Structure formats: C-alpha cells, structure tokens
C-alpha cells in the first residue's frame, strides 16, 4: 500500500549525506574522482589560428533569450548565483554578458570562474563503505550553461552532416528503439542469404566521459572542419578546470584537471560521441559491433575487433569490469555453427545467449520471416481481441 501511495504522490526519499565530512575525507574523494588525470601524458596546445575561420559572434538577442529560459529549479554552481536572479535580471544582464561572451570567443579563452566545478558526493546506497560508493554530482555555474548552449547551437550546425549516423545518443528524434531496429535489420537481412551467420559484440566503456583527452578531441573536430577559433575555445574550456568536492559548508582543496569532459555541462554530451562489411552501432558509450559473416570467413570481423582494442589503448579508455558479451546469430536453417572464442584487450570473449543491450533481449536464432498465413493469423487475432 505504501509503495502505491509513494508512486501516486511521486515521493522521493532524501538521499543520505556522507557521515564523515572532514576535509581529509573530501580531499580523498576529490583525488579519487580525478585519478584519470594521472594517465594523461598529452600536452594540450591550441591550433594555429586560420584566416579562413573567424570567431563566432553572439547577439544581445541570443543572450537575452538564453537568460530568460533558465530553469530556476536548477541548483546554483560554485559561484552561488541562483538561476532565478539571472532570469529575473535578463534584460539588465544581457548586454554585459554579450560583451563577455564575445570577448571569450574572440580570444578563445574561458574565464576560470566559468570553468569551476563543485562536486557533491551522493551515496549510491544507505551504507557506503568505500569511495566508489559515492556518486559525483557535478555543479557548474548556471551562466556558463547558458554560454555553452549558445556555442552548442553553432557546433551542431557544423557537425550535423558529419556525425556517425549509427550514433543514437544525444541526438534529436533518436532513441534506443532506433538503435535496436537498425541492429535487427542489419542482421536479419543478412541471414536471408544462404550460408551466413552474424556475430554481435556488446561492449561498454569504463568512465567514458572522464577519460576524454582534449588534444585528441580537438584533432577530431579539426578533421571535421570545425572552426579553428571554436576548437581552441573548446580546448581552453576543457583544460585547467578547477574542481573541488563539497559536503554542506565544508569544501575540499581545489585541484586542476586537464582530462575528461565535465558531466555537469551542456557541451559534454555532444563532445563525447565525436570522440569515437561490419556495422558499429552506438548509444553514448554503449557500443555494438555487428559482423555479417558469409562462408565462415570472420577475417573482417576479427580485424574490426582488433581495431577497437587498439583504439581503446590509444585514447586511454578501458572496458567496464563487467565482461563484454559476444552473441552468435544463425537463421536456424543451417547446421549449428561452432565458433572459437577470442580476446579483446584482457577479456576472453565467449558466446552468451541471450544477450541484452539497450533494453531488449536478443535471441540467437532467427527462424526466418513469418509466412503469409502466419501474418493472416496475427491480423485475425489482433482484430478479434
């Protein structure tokens, strides 16, 4: 009964706060959240400016619209300025921030106070026992979120035609249903041919957002012919970022980060997908490699897996401790296919049936398309019910 009442009233119990809120504990948490910084050996340098690419410019109307649309229920960032103040004073502040934002874009430099992040640790369960039991909730300045949305509009216009059509996360009018449909269509169409089968590899990356290297991301953006000035601005935004952990009124020591993309920011979700006869289907960092195999020749599929493993090593991105899963698909009309397992990085891939990804459960055997009589029975059953 109580569960029904809570569901109807949308009751959400308050999250417990860390019991140990001394500075030493918060410093430990801050170092734990920033431990990917130790693996970054790359030097982030800006690209030489090009005369062909002039800095983007924002208008008073752009800034005013962004300020007037601020969600006042969002928590304030490290600057302590609530959204309701920025929204209420949008007309008075729009002119000031227009000058600040345009100067930032022209110089490809983001003010340090705009890049600061305050992390609030939230326990994943009622009795946390280690640092990993605290989920980091990042709070960034609300005014910077407005700035990012304006920049993101220009970035999306340039990236729209260049993004991988098989990336289904953080894109309008796309969902996991679309990813599943493409995966099933690719496999089932291939299985209509004789002497064929398909292999599907489901992988997930560990801390995908925290391991992004700004230098490699900017190289990707330049390869996509993004404005040089905008690339340098994004580089500055992702480097020299002050971060501290806060619990109540107690804060840890501030450290500076040059690795990863802050998950409390607007640009994060569009930066991460850029940083990444076989088909590779992605939903954020959930990735599926589909091998469409004929005549028992898996050469191309296994080469693609090797490329994936090499790419993981290059960008310092590791797979999750939960082992990647490999699935074998056959049409059910041929003899059973016996395949040898293979490895990707340190994981031994063996076949697992069924496999679950993006929500639904994938089965290994495809019995072939329904006959016209089967379709007629389905229609009759649907109309009679």
From TrEMBL:
**What CDD domains does the record point to?**
RT_nLTR_like (cd01650)
Among the Pfam families in the record, one is RVT_1
Q: Which residues form the Reverse transcriptase domain?
A: 122-267
Q: What is the recorded name of this protein?
A: Reverse transcriptase domain-containing protein
What species does this protein belong to?
Cirrhinus mrigala (Mrigala)
